[in-house]
Design a protein that fits this description.
This protein is 41% helix and 18% strand. By secondary structure, the chain is an alpha/beta fold. The protein folds into two domains: 182 residues, 3-Layer(aba) Sandwich (Rossmann fold); 113 residues, Rossmann fold (3-Layer(aba) Sandwich), CATH 3.40.50.460. It has a seven-stranded mixed sheet with strand order 3-2-1-4-5-10-11, with helices on both faces. It has a four-stranded parallel sheet with strand order 7-8-6-9, sandwiched between helices. β1, α1 and β2 form a beta-alpha-beta unit. α1 packs parallel to α9, α5 crosses α6 and α6 packs parallel to α11. It binds adenosine-5'-diphosphate (ADP) and 6-O-phosphono-beta-D-fructofuranose. The site of adenosine-5'-diphosphate (ADP) has 17 residues, from α4.
């Protein structure tokens, strides 16, 4: 079947670089005389038929903007077969021949459902968490990491002036990727991730050791998904002092915003172009992933059935370099 009209949507948590991906999808498709429609608010807009034509002009000036011009949402109804059938019907009503879904694990699970119902779909990994299997990096991860590092650097300034320990919470849902990497690159004394649960005594001990070694301050990066949440750690340190005075900073959604870095713009642009190429080549049910230096299609069924593990050696690196 010749593809004449495709649609693109962003779904789940937004990530810096999603706009760059939308722009690349629109302009590379238009260059091949394929019309593009944007679906507003992810699967919510799909179900309500909220489609709008995107020409090259609609995607002008968005390359450098965080967030997503198409907006995004979480939609429980689309998880049901009834919802998915309704979504398929909306795509047919609009004369859409192929769909690009930009989002995280959940969004890509929805994309796979459409593919299994016979609709051509290609996924693009967009999530700051870097928890998507089949790609070295997802869109938004690099920008989020840089945002966290900027915060850690600033907190280190004040921590060292006051001889304090800072507990800093990083996002990532159930993944400790952002925590581990920002811990290594921000020079943290300890990182606490869901992948390697650490007991409260050990966290206190690591900070106390840093104090005893003569450090002027200490940084602990704690993942939001860690076994012991940041406030629990802070409460424990009140009754088990570690030498330093303790302060808590929860970075929160600031990690999801901001202008995408050069890395994210490039990754998003390449993935957007490749996603269109995949659809036009007649492929479906795949996600475009970063494999070494190449953008490669990976079956969505594999992507959502596997767990992306953190490279083990980074944990050792974090520990050795914190001394
Ligand atoms: P992310 O895509 O960032 O992982 P979510 O997990 O919230 O974010 O998923 C985004 C949306 O994808 C959900 O609100 C839902 O509409 C759709 N989705 C998630 N899981 C499934 C599923 N198992 N089947 C179909 N659609 C799903
Ligand atoms: O998946 C991205 C993410 O920012 C996670 O790191 C975090 O757990 C979650 O989304 C927060 O979701 P919400 O925007 O619904 O608060």
């Amino acid at each position: 079947m010749k593809i004449r009209r495709i649609a693109v949507m962003t779904s789940g948590g937004d990530a810096p670089g999603m706009n760059a991906a939308i722009r690349a999808v629109v302009r590379s498709a238009n260059a091949k005389d394929v019309e593009v429609y944007g679906i507003r608010r992810g699967y919510t807009g799909l179900l309500s038929g909220d489609f709008e034509r995107l020409t090259n002009r609609e995607v002008s000036g968005i390359l450098q903007r965080g967030g997503t011009i198409l907006q995004t949402a979480r939609n429980a109804e689309f998880k049901t077969e009834k919802g998915q059938k309704r979504g398929l019907r909306r795509l047919n009503e609009q004369g859409i021949d192929g769909l690009v879904v930009i989002g995280g694990d959940g969004s890509l699970t929805g994309a796979l459902a459409l593919h299994e119902m016979g609709f051509p779909v290609v996924g693009i990994p967009g999530s700051i968490d870097n928890d998507i299997w089949g790609t070295n990096m997802s869109i938004g991860v690099d920008t989020a990491l840089n945002t966290i590092l900027d915060a850690i650097d600033k907190l280190r300034d004040t921590a060292s002036s006051h001889e304090r320990a800072f507990l800093i919470e990083a996002m990532g849902r159930n993944s400790g990727y952002l925590t581990l990497m920002s811990g290594i690159l921000g020079g943290a004394e300890i990182v606490v991730t869901p992948e390697r649960p650490i007991e409260l005594e050990e966290i206190a001990q690591a900070l106390d050791d840093a104090y005893m070694r003569g450090k002027s301050h200490a940084i602990a990066v704690i993942a939001e998904g860690a076994k012991h949440k940041i406030n629990e750690v802070a409460a424990y340190l009140e009754t088990h002092p570690c030498g330093f005075e303790v302060r808590v900073t929860i970075l929160g959604h600031v990690q999801r915003g901001g202008s995408p870095t050069a890395f994210d713009r490039l990754l998003a642009t390449r993935m957007g172009v490749h996603a269109v190429d995949e659809l036009l080549a007649g492929r479906s049910g795949v996600m475009v992933g970063l494999d070494g230096r190449s953008i490669t299609p990976v079956p969505l069924a594999e992507v959502i059935s596997q767990k992306r593990e953190i490279t083990e050696s980074y944990f050792e690196m974090a520990q050795i370099l914190s001394r």
